Amino acid sequence: MGAAPALEARGLVKEFRGFRATNDVNLQIQEGEIHAIIGPNGAGKTTLFNLLSGFLKPTAGEVTLFGQRIDALAPHEIVRRGLSRSFQISSVFPTLTVRENVVVALQAGTPLPHRFWTPLSRLEGLRDRADEILQAVGLSDFAGRAASELSHGEKRQLEIGISMSQEPRVLLLDEPTSGMGSEGIARVAALVRQVARGRTVVLVEHNMSVVAELADRITVLQYGSVLASGRYDDVRLDPRVIEAYLGD
Ligand code: ADP
C-alpha cells in the first residue's frame, strides 16, 4: 500500500436545511501537489474549503489529513495537525504593522497563558521569524508600515504570509488572485509556486491561466458534486466541463 494522501475527502456531504451544497464529494490530494478546485459560482467550492478546514462539520462523510480523521476537530486543532488556510475576506489587522500582523499569527501558535507573558527574547525571535516570512512573500520593504497602507494585492501576499506562519504541510488558498490586475496576478502566482515547494497546496481559483500555470491536477465542481478530476490538460477537454462553463 502507498502512503496516505495528504488530504482526502470520502463521501462528503453538507446539507443546509435539506439543500445539498456538497454532494458525495470524493477527493484525493497527493502530498506535494498543487491542486486547483474550480467550478461555476454556487458550485460548492467555499463550502468544500470550509469542510476541509473544519469551519463546517459535514452532514456525512469524512476528511482525512495524512490518513488521520480530522472532520470532527475544531479548526485550530486542524491547524496544529498541519493544515492552514487563507480566507477570501481579509484576515489582516489594518492598524497593526505588516510585521506585527505576522508576529500575532506566530504568537497564535503559542499556548494562550504564555501569549501575554512572552519574554522579550522570544518576541525578538518571533520578529526575526516574521521578517523571514515577509522576505519569502516579498514584503520586506513594507515590514514597518501599517497594513492598511498595503494595496489589495500586497494584502493578499500578507495573508499568504500569515497562513505560512503555522508552517503548514497543507495550505488551502481561497482565490489568492481575486480582484487583482495582471501584475499582481503574476506576482501571486509566482508566490504560490514558491510556497508550494515542499508542501501541498489546494487553491480555489477563477483565473484559468493561473490554474493552467500552477495546478498539477484540478477538480471541477458543479451543483456540489465532482464533475471531473485529473490533469488540467485532460479535464479542460472533457465535454461535460466545457458544457458546464459555457452554461455559466
Ligand atoms: P461557491 O464557493 O462555489 O460559489 P458555495 O460553497 O459558496 O459555492 O455555495 C454552494 C451553494 O450552497 C450555494 O447554492 C449557496 O447558496 C449554498 N450555501 C452556502 N452556504 C450556505 C449556508 N450557510 N446556508 C444555506 N445555503 C448555503
TrEMBL record:
The keyword Ribonucleoprotein does not apply. Keywords: ATP-binding, Nucleotide-binding, Transport. It holds the Pfam family ABC_tran. Transmembrane segments: none annotated. This is ABC transporter ATP-binding protein. It comes from Deinococcus depolymerans. The keyword Glycosyltransferase does not apply. InterPro entries: AAA+_ATPase (IPR003593), ABC_AA/LPS_Transport (IPR051120), ABC_transporter-like_ATP-bd (IPR003439), BCA_ABC_TP_C (IPR032823), P-loop_NTPase (IPR027417). Residues 7-248 form the ABC transporter domain. PANTHER family: ABC TRANSPORTER ATP-BINDING PROTEIN, CONSERVED COMPONENT OF ABC TRANSPORTER FOR NATURAL AMINO ACIDS-RELATED. GO terms for molecular function: ATP binding. PROSITE patterns: ABC_TRANSPORTER_2.
